[in-house]
């Protein structure tokens, strides 16, 4: 499914835009002032290997939860970031 560019305000001033979406992948524009900027970064759906916090909602993520994570190699600066997969379902409903 292709979306209009969906801007989201993430944690710590991160600006996230979902450019494309499918059930298993996202293409995201990630702008983290003073740290990194990825114009078209591919993220894949997977189970969280560690606990953490959703980059969009700040919800707690537990190990095993469905999340999207950066899929590029070598590992990008935001490699530890995660977005809860359920957030995308909520966006689709809105």
Tell me briefly what this model is.
It contains one helix and eight strands.
Please tell me about this protein's structure.
It is a single chain. By secondary structure, the chain is mostly beta strands. The chain has one domain. It has one helix and eight strands, in the order E-E-E-E-E-E-E-E-H. Strands 1-2-3-4-7-8 form a six-stranded antiparallel beta sheet. The longest helix is centred in the last third of the chain and has 9 residues, at 85-93. The protein is globular.
Key traits:
94 residues, 8 strands, 6-stranded antiparallel sheet, globular, two-stranded antiparallel ribbon, 10% helix, mainly beta
How are the SSEs placed, and which strands pair?
Elements lengths: L5 E4 L5 E7 L3 E8 L3 E12 L4 E2 L6 E2 L4 E5 L12 E2 H9 L1
Antiparallel strand pairs: 1-2, 2-3, 3-4, 4-7, 5-6, 7-8
* Relative strand content: 35-45%
> Regions with pLDDT < 50 over 5+ consecutive residues?
none
Through-space gap between termini? 16 Å
Largest beta sheet: strand ordering: 1-2-3-4-7-8
Instruction: Tally the structural domains.
Output: 1
**Share of residues in helices:** under 10%
Derived from helix and strand composition plus strand pairing, the structural class reads mainly beta
Radius of gyration of CA atoms, rounded to a whole number: 12 Å
Q: Report the sheet with the most strands, covering strand number, pairing sense and barrel closure.
A: 6 strands, antiparallel
SS elements, strand count: 8
Mean residue pLDDT: 85
Number of helical stretches of at least 4 residues = 1
Order of SSEs = EEEEEEEEH
- Outline type: globular
